[in-house]
Specification:
By secondary structure, this protein is an all-alpha fold. The protein is about 70% helix and about 0% strand. The protein has five helices and no strands. It starts with a helix and ends with a helix.
Length: about 150
């Protein structure tokens, strides 16, 4: 099984376990999960984005980082469980849980697709990697611009 296949298998196991846990978790636990997932995503994207911006060499583990981002994008929505919207430091606008929930969910679908393309772009070379690392960052930013409070 190749790295992408192993990553997919691990992701499926994590999604199943985390989804069940998130459904039973208290809102404050879901918020901690969400914050941890976002920190993990930043840690994986930062070196790829630095490369895309010409600030660093392509990370030797670029493929692994891209696969991790794809897995995190698939997991991240579980951190936005109902009940977390009013917690201190939740940093998500209430409409993400209500009137604009479908749009919020569409953002996750876009991020999942974009991170999958980044994973495939790594093998296509540095130009494709740069383009999709920037696309992932733009996907993140668009959701933050629309749904994140400051």
């Amino acid at each position: 099984m190749d790295l992408f296949g192993r990553g997919a298998a691990i992701t499926l196991l994590l999604v199943a376990a985390s989804t069940a846990e998130a459904q039973q978790a208290r809102p404050d636990e879901s918020l901690k999960l969400r914050q941890g997932l976002m920190q993990a995503a930043r840690s994986q994207l930062a070196p790829l984005l630095a490369f895309a911006q010409g600030k660093a060499d392509m990370p030797a583990d670029a493929n692994e980082r891209a696969t991790n981002l794809w897995a995190l994008a698939r997991l991240a929505p579980i951190g936005w469980a109902t009940g977390t919207e009013a917690l201190p430091h939740a940093n998500t606008r209430p409409e993400a849980f209500g009137a604009r929930h479908a749009e919020f969910q569409k953002g996750w679908t876009n991020l999942i697709a974009t991170t999958a393309r980044l994973s495939m772009a790594i093998g296509a070379g540095p130009d494709a990697t740069r383009a999709y690392a920037v696309a992932v960052a733009k996907s993140c930013k668009s959701c933050h611009d629309e749904f994140r409070t400051e």
